[in-house]
Amino acid sequence: MVPFGGFEMPVQYSSLGVSASHHFTREKASLFDVGHMVQHRFEGPGATAFLQRITPGSLASLPTHQSTLSALLWPGTGGIVDDTVITRLGPELFYVVTNAACREKDLGYLKEQLAAWDGAEVRHEVLDGWGLIALQGPLSEELLTQILESPSETNLREVYFGQSRFAKVKGAKDPVLISRGGYTGEDGFEISISPSDTVAVTKTLLDTAGPEKLQFAGLGARDSLRLEAGMCLYGHDLDDTTTPVEAALGWIVGKDRRDPGVSEADNFHGADVILAQLKPKSKGGSGVSRRRVGLVVEGSPAREGAEIVSVSVDGKGEKIGVVTSGCPSPTLGKNIAMGYIKDGLHKAGTEVQVLVRGRPRKAVVTKMPFVPAKYYKEPTPA
Asked: In the predicted model, is pLDDT for residue 382 greater than 70?
């Protein structure tokens, strides 16, 4: 057990070690207790406009029961306060999940932003005590279907990546919110459960599936899985000084939110900085000086804080970046890492060196995800 975001969290469970749990998730299914995450509801006639002020997403056109990855942004700088997933549940009703490690900072930020908001009414509620579990792996749909009270009414085959549904499940008095997605790169679901039903729903899922198909997984497997999937961990790969463009998350800026003629006062926080960064200097923008990249490292694994340097015989090359996350990849059998590197050296295939305990190790900039995602996506119309 380790302290994490104000909770005591298991790195692993006694039934499986970290690597075995990682493989079990990729081959069958794992259950992650992510109830430490902070769940919010934003409601009221000004909810859409308010969330579009503090995030860069196209929420006005987001369909009901559709989710999007986004980020809370600092005014002026465009730095990331926290990364978040936003789901529209109604015309002016949103379900938002933020990180436990940022809880106090995020709540302070939201309180400040709501106090400064001069638009239509917005009601904000933190869903304290609500459970959140993540069912991840190729058997996830099969196992979740088994505990639905009406599988024909809530047909999970018709719920695609990024979509959600309310459904009744066995062992619960209240409907749960089922969202297809997760933090592993595998197919799966995150399930938000009312406080009185959390234990019952979790137990029903485990007992119905059986240990040969479903096991609990801890922080260790969660970290190696998310890194193979190329996903960021706030406080490591993202922080208050990082903009979405630097973090290779420029795609979270909605296409309809990129009008440079709209001032930041009428746009999302940090728009002036972020929109300029989206354009390279050669096209009149500012570009960025660093970019988040993936790395495959030879020899020893590179951990957070390891310097990335240009190639040299003695390992004393110029510092060009820093590793923010790294571990051996159980799936690939290679050492993988994520970090920030000088702009211009971020292209896949670029050879660099990483200093591991002072010794240079060969590394290659690599496209992410390291392991192809297996999301269940809606078929593209012919």
From this structure: no
